[in-house]
Write a structure and sequence with these properties.
D-amino Acid Aminotransferase, Chain A, domain 1, alpha/beta, 3 domains, Rossmann fold, 5-stranded parallel sheet, 7-stranded mixed sheet, 35% helix
Length: 385
């Protein structure tokens, strides 16, 4: 968006992608304000952060959150707000209900909700002429019974979820007894697609693709979020992303979980209307910001080395390697990869991740949940209502 004001607010400062985006914008000459709920998020330690503001938790205090964001925008003279995590839904609702003095780099709430919903997203992709895996909405026990005998062919997951939480992958029929779907909290049963996973991170403006990184996650935090990323190239995956952003006239960041089958066909599995780790493959501030916010042509990734968070690899990757006998692969991954938190002249966030981790651990202990669940507990958006 040419002519965007120099002061930009990035929300979701707990996320490494928020830190990375702040560094890109700062490097391109913007004044960057960061905001989030935690007291000590990693991005707040960066030299790219002109000021950090702590906000009420959007999931639990949405009205107070919207009020605080509006006050912050007015106090700091912010012209553009860029969400990075699921607070994007609360921001879209805030913009819907009041006149804000800044733009938000995201679509409206209806489109955000449509693509975040794992059932309606597949319907959208199908309407846009894309091949999709069979995906059935499961809203009751009777829906479960209707497909119980096919459970070994299916993947079950809540319509509103993240990080592969609660996913049942080709479960035995008796495992379905633990699922309690309802119209308010439905699930989907999706045909299991065998192949190679591809993740896509994209930025678009008015349906035009401005940045795209395709990658795969070779190491994960359990079955959930990736912690080691390797770039891939795939024309079919690019075509799929282009069709969706054009068909929705998308403006903002958008990400996809895709599957490439053995014959080269790429199918969409789900969509996350927010930033993901593919952003770390862009490190040229001028080119990235000119493409995304200015008049520049689409920017391509300028990083080829695999990207990782080494602390997460020690916490999650090493135990997994010891269990599977993949210690040699773990060593190679650590040797060949680049720490995605590293940035020339900005070392503080690497150490700040320890304080941020301690704060998340306190939430996990208090709520008796996993570290991963604690990291998003206060920003999750699980549908309207």
């Amino acid at each position: 968006m040419p002519g965007a004001d120099k002061t930009i607010l990035i929300t979701g400062a707990r996320a490494p992608v928020a830190l990375h985006l702040a560094r890109l914008l700062h490097g391109a000459g913007h004044r960057v304000i960061l905001a989030d709920t935690p007291a000590r998020p990693i991005a707040a330690a960066s030299k790219a952060c002109a000021r950090y503001h702590r906000l009420p938790p959007p999931r639990f205090e949405p009205q107070a959150y919207a009020d605080a964001v509006e006050a912050l925008i007015r106090a700091e003279g912010i012209g553009l707000v860029i969400p990075t995590c699921e607070e994007v839904f609360r921001l879209a609702l805030a913009w819907l209900g009041r006149t804000m003095p800044a733009k938000v780099f995201a679509p409206g709430i209806d489109l955000l909700a449509e693509v975040h919903n794992k059932h309606s997203f597949i319907g959208l992709a199908e309407r846009l002429g894309l091949e999709v895996p069979e995906t059935t909405l499961v809203s009751s026990r009777s829906d479960i019974e209707a497909i119980r005998n096919r459970s070994h062919e299916l993947v079950f997951k809540p319509v509103w979820s993240r990080f592969a939480s609660h996913v049942l992958l080709r479960p035995p029929p008796q495992a379905l007894d633990a699922i309690m779907p309802s119209p308010a909290m439905p699930w989907v049963a999706q045909r299991f697609v065998d192949g190679e996973e591809i993740s896509a991170y994209a930025v678009a403006r008015q349906g035009r693709l401005k940045a795209l990184a395709l990658y795969r996650s070779l190491h994960r935090a359990g079955r959930g979020a990736g912690i080691f990323f390797e770039r891939v190239e795939d024309d079919a995956a690019r075509h799929l992303v282009e069709r969706i952003v054009a068909g929705t006239a998308w403006t903002g960041q958008i990400s996809f979980d895709l599957m490439r089958e053995a014959d080269g066909r790429v199918l969409p599995l789900e969509c996350n209307p927010r930033a993901v780790s593919g952003l770390h493959f862009f490190r040229d501030p001028g080119r990235f910001v000119d493409a995304v916010l200015g008049d520049g042509a689409e920017v391509t990734p300028d990083v080829s080395a695999p990207q990782t968070v080494r602390l997460a690899m020690w916490i999650y990757g090493l135990p997994a390697a010891l269990r599977s006998g993949g210690l040699g692969e773990f060593r190679n991954a650590m040797r060949e990869s680049q720490e995605l938190l590293d940035w020339p002249g900005d070392p503080a966030p690497v150490m700040a991740q320890w304080r941020a981790l301690a704060e998340i651990a306190q939430v996990a202990l208090r709520e008796r949940i996993s570290l991963q669940a604690a990291s998003t507990r206060d920003i999750e958006w699980n549908g309207p209502g």
